[in-house]
């Protein structure tokens, strides 16, 4: 009889185990809903605006930033890099935050400034990037581009998004206008225009003076 009583499960221990599991579940749920630090994610833009001149290369992209966690994420800075290109292809720097994709004379300049992406929310933003030196020329071909970001809770630059920039779609290089980033096949006439514009840019680039220091480029950032 004594041995049989010892082998029976204790109702007190079972209740304690259930209470402990409930407590762990409550704390975990609170942390997941209210305190979890997530990460930023983004997607390939379907369009872009560009001007590619021997003295100026500027790109404007529509970006969607999504915060996967519960806590806000502070974005301090962004830049565009070209992982597959030579070291001469320096990152394009974040120069402004326009209110729309299509450039226009009636726009008010808005300098880069840090911003926060609230937890589990997404923001659509227009980001304008510019080459730090004159003489940077995009050829009419595809580029693998990596968008990098600096956030408040981490140190250094971190990859945000890698996508294909289809610079071959840039037809009128001296005009700051909008292009599709879709993989479309250009007509022969369009390719001839793009090749002629590139040759003109390269001829002008040969006559440029020695490059000075960049606008915001700081090698110590890396």
What does this structure look like?
- There is one protein chain.
- The chain is an alpha+beta fold and 222 residues long.
- It has three helices and ten strands; from the N terminus they run ααββββββββββα.
- The protein has helices at 2-7, 11-35, 188-206; strands at 40-41, 47-53, 56-67, 73-81, 92-96, 115-117, 122-130, 142-151, 158-166, 177-180.
- Strands 1, 2, 3, 4, 5, 6, 7, 8, 9 and 10 form a ten-stranded antiparallel sheet that branches.
- The radius of gyration is 26 Å and the shape is elongated.
- The N and C termini lie far apart (75 Å).
- The model is unreliable at 210-217 (pLDDT under 50).
The overall average pLDDT, rounded, is 82
- State Rg: 26 Å
Class computed from helices, strands and strand pairing = alpha+beta
Shape: elongated
**Beta content:** 25-35%
Task: Tell me briefly what this model is.
The chain is α+β, with helices and mostly antiparallel strands and 222 residues long. The protein is built from three helices and ten strands, in the order H-H-E-E-E-E-E-E-E-E-E-E-H.
């Amino acid at each position: 009889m004594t041995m049989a009583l010892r082998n029976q499960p204790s109702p007190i221990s079972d209740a304690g185990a259930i209470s402990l599991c409930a407590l762990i579940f409550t704390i975990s749920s609170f942390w997941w809903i209210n305190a979890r630090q997530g990460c930023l994610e983004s997607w390939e833009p379907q369009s872009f605006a560009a001007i590619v001149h021997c003295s100026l290369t500027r790109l404007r992209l529509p970006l969607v930033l999504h915060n996967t966690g519960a806590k806000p994420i502070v974005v301090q800075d962004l830049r565009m890099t070209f992982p597959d290109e030579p070291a001469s292809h320096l990152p394009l720097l974040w120069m402004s935050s326009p209110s729309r994709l299509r450039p226009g004379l009636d726009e008010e300049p808005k300098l880069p400034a840090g911003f926060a992406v609230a937890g589990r929310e997404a923001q659509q933003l227009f980001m304008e990037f510019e080459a730090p030196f004159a003489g940077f020329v995009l050829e009419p071909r595809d580029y693998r581009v990596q968008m990098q970001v600096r956030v408040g809770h981490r140190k250094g630059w971190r990859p945000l998004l890698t996508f294909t920039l289809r610079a071959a779609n840039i037809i009128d290089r001296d005009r700051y206008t909008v292009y599709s980033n879709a993989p479309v096949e250009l007509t022969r006439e369009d390719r001839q225009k793009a090749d002629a514009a590139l040759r003109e840019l390269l001829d002008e680039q040969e006559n440029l003076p020695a490059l000075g220091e960049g606008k915001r480029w700081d090698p110590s950032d890396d």
